[in-house]
Structures are given as C-alpha cells and as structure tokens.
User: Fold Beta-ketoacyl-ACP reductase from Effusibacillus dendaii.
Amino acid sequence: MNNHAHPLREQVAIVTGASRGIGRAIAETLARLGASVAINYQHSKEQAEAVAHACQLYGVEAIPVQANVTDGADVARLLETTSLYLGKPDILINNAGIASHSLLIDTSEAEWDQVMEVNLKAAFLCTKAVMPEMIRKRYGRIVNISSIWGMTGGSGETAYSAAKGGLIAFTKALAKEMGPSGITVNAVAPGVIETDMLAGLPQSDKQTLVEETPAGRLGTPQDIASVVAFLTLPSSGFITGQVISPNGGFLT
Assistant:
C-alpha cells in the first residue's frame, strides 16, 4: 500500500451499525482507503462477518464486534476488543440508528426512549469512550450520521427528527470542545437513501420522493460513504462542526 492511494493506512476505525446499508458502505470505503475497521453490529452476525470479509479483501484488518451501543458496558467492550485486535481507534463513525414513523400523539414513551437511545445516546457513549485516547494522541475524526429530518423536521417522524437534530447540536458543541485537541467532529445528514429503512414505503411514495429530488433519483449508501470518507481524511483537519447533507438537492 502507498499512502497516496491509501490515506488512512495504519489508522483504525469503528463504524457502529455497520452490518448493512449506509454503515456497510462506510466500512468498506474506509477499508479501501487503508483503514483497519471494527464492524459493530447488534444482531446481524452473519451480515457483519460478510462486511468484515469484504473489507479484508482490500488488504486491511477487519473484525465484526457485537455490542449494544446504547449500553455503556457493551461500548466499553467494543472499544476494548477493537484496541486488542486492531489498535486504538483514530476514527469513529456513529452510524447506528433506527427509524420511527408515527404521529407524536401515537408515539409511546417506550418508542420515544428507544429512538433517543439508539440515535443519540449511543453516539454520546461511543464518543466518550474513544475521546481519552484521541486527546492523548491529539488526533481524531468523529463523524455522526444525522438526517435531513434533523435539519428540517419530518411530519410523522417527530421522535426521529428530534433525535437526529440533537445529534447535530451534539456535533457542533463537541467540535468546539475537541478542536484544541486536533479532533474534528462533523455530521453527515443524508437525504432520501435507498436502504432497508425505505423498504416499507409504497412504490408510489418512493416515486414521489424521486420527483421531489432535483437529482432525479434516490441516494445510495455509497453517496453517503464518499462524504463520510472525505471527512475522515488527515487532510480534512480544518473542517469541523459542520453539517454536510448529501441529498440530491431535496433540501437546499
């Protein structure tokens, strides 16, 4: 490997929720750029193993690591396992998330809590876990996967919008805390992306979303992974506290 073609060589990345969709695309893209990758998953062991294998084809180390990232003890184990087998993480991608499609009046307290835990609390726990070593090294790249609904709000997705909006505020505040330590913190807010989260939508609704997107198509996981990868590069050190939204012009 040469460093020009593999700018993340000798770096270690943790990607949460990486067994499929956007998380998988991010993990494989970071591996292609030379990073060793910890593939975090909660239930999908076989899928995570497949992602790790795909990453290894780029000549890097990659391991699947089971952890519920809403649980502090599991997050500590995720960090410990990554550090043992790959090394201390230089890059953290907080990608784990769940959708919620219901009017607020129909949203239960349990559903609200779950959406907040997976989309927001998990990012807090994982970030706090990797921070001490990043501060010691005076280097780190943290990217939080938010959503356009965290920027503009989505009807029928109040809980999800609130959690993803919270993630944006978390990003901006933490960037100010971490800047003096050489650590960048950014958010990527995808538009409408063709993933499992859209699987339940009727085709007519998908077509409407396509028509509302100036680019004339839905986004792909790779569209998001490319932006995330750019933010993890050593050369992206002056970009921090930003929200970048690859959305095909859906939101301007």
Q: What stands out?
A: The chain has one domain: 12-244. The chain has eight helices and seven strands.
